[in-house]
Amino acid sequence: MSTISASTTSTTGYVVTSDTTGTLVLQTGATPTTAVTVASNQQVTFAQPANLPNTFGFKNRIINGGMVIDQRNSGASVTINNTAVYTLDRWYDRCVGGAGSAVMTVQRSTTAPTGFTNSKLTTVTTSKSPAVSEQFWFYQAVEGLNMSDFGMGTASAVTFTLSFWVRASVTGTYSVAFQNSAQNRSYVATYTVNAANTFEYKTLTITGDTTGTWLTDNGVGMYVFFDTGSGSNFNAAAGAWTAGTYYRTSGSVSLIANSGATFYITGVQLEKGSTATSFDYRPYGTELALCQRYLPALNSTSTTDPVALAFTPATTIVRGQFDFKVTPRTPPTGITVSSASHFSWDTGVASGTPSAISFTAASSQSARFALTVTGATAGNAAVISFSSASGQILFTGCEL
User: Which CATH architecture group holds 78-291?
Assistant: First the structure.
């Protein structure tokens, strides 16, 4: 068996057709470009061009770009006032307005373009004209391990493309910024919202940075910022890598200055190459697992859901161990629960509701936490369960 090889630099991929004479035609566009004649049972191999976009595996380096995962809030609105908080999984929002007069709310929304079920909705509830040093934006930090092949900071840095769907009540030019972990290298790009309250598809192609320090470990490989009205100290010209921290261009829309303004976004995709490809729809379970690397969490579905096996080292303590379904980015350093009253403990001979829950320790496989109780007998095995359908346990400190 012989092999016939052919290659091309086309980025459109290969289409192979045949006719009744045994001729195979290699087509890289509308016009056939290579034809070879083969005999029966002969193998034909066509080499894939080096710059063919990745359409398999982890194409989209943004996690939860479809805004479907919301472990913390389950779609509830989150108020952002003079602070910075995680909202939907993997998304971090900042609204810093001097004395805290500016207020935004963020939540998962079911308003979405065709092909999507959810979007991330930002609403300005109290407007503000930003001072020069104030910051208003949201971002996702892409882990360095997930984009080491971008070659950032080297002569081999690749061109990459950001694409997304956006709907805003305020039309005009908006800014997106890309930064390294130290935030001393920035690239500002712009896009235009042409029609108010209408989903529009946007693509931005960026030439990779050949200088600066870019992490390829489990730290921040790249920040992707969507500006919502930062002050003029953070203005830069669009279209070039610049030393410093910049989020926007002069003249970009300041969403925070418009009371009642809304901004929806979904289908966010960051990929190698100069062409935006179709959105990387991953299975829901896969997307959830990707999010749990940064936020090990458990939300109750009933009033009897088990949480962890435990034991009673003292009459006032029930100590539980929670085994992670996904290895976290780093061992958690803290715990947040909906309310201690949403939990119960049971040894078989005694049971009750804890008055408090505290973090004890964690590794990359599990975390220990302690319930403050009364009426336990030291040395007993126990089970910790939810006692409310609103119960939630979050292990924090793994985020980027």
Answer: Sandwich (2.60)
